[in-house]
Prior knowledge:
This protein is elongated. The protein is built from four helices and 16 strands. Strands 1, 2, 3, 4, 5, 6, 7, 8, 15 and 16 form a ten-stranded mixed β-sheet that branches. The protein has a six-stranded antiparallel β-sheet with strand order 10-9-12-13-14-11. By secondary structure, the chain is mostly beta strands.
Amino acid sequence: xxxxxxxxxxxxxxxxxxxxxxxxxxxxxxxxxxxxxxxxxxxxxxxxxxxxxxxxxxxxxxxxxxxxxxxxxxxxxxxxxxxxxxxxxxxxxxxxxxxxxxxxxxxxxxxxxxxxxxxxxxxxxxxxxxxxxxxxxxxxxxxxxxxxxxxxxxxxxxxxxxxxxxxxxxxxxxxxxxxxxxxxxxxxxxxxxxxxxxxxxxxxxxxxxxxxxxxxxxxxxxxxxxxxxxxxxxxxxxxxxxxxxxxxxxxxxxxxxxxxxxxxxxxxxxxxxxxxxxxxxxxxxx
Length: 286
């Protein structure tokens, strides 16, 4: 009888823990309604430019040298992307052997949100740690979350976007206390212990914007940075902020600047480096 009671108690506790994550309360439904359509997929490619000749280079016959994929978050004034989209070369081992003689140049951005949009040049308006804000409300029509600067210990909602096999997004949503006291960079976050794989996450702060009206504002974005999930505060992004310089050792040019400074439309390609051997280069017309 005692064993039965212990087992019964164990399963009741386990069921309660599971319910906190998977059983929707009315508050969780409010959160899910607020975040509907706020995530999108983005693929960013880049090229290399020879600092002496100003010629552009791709890798192994491609138009681009490298690419990075991540999840972005829509805001009312544009969208926010993690650092691997704004500076993909910092996460590409192939770039290491070329960093002294070539500068990285952002190439094409492919945004997937039901249908694909291609942007020829991603322009970062403001940066906050490992997050970068692009002020372009025309892409998503101003539909998105409102960024907010969180301070001190804040009660809010943590939302995980999960890997999905069908077209319907799946989330894990639960309440969480987050401490933003003196936070200037990212904090490591433990992912939920379940069978789903997270793709991205956000931390929302509920505010009452009117009588009977509850708004969820974007306080932080959670992204996978070199194998660790980091909660990164968005700060106070706004279109009026001036563009900040990238944190890497080289400043990329925009595609417009390349067109003005280059006397050729030729794009060369480099073979993938192997153990420091001479780099073979081939020229190929666009």
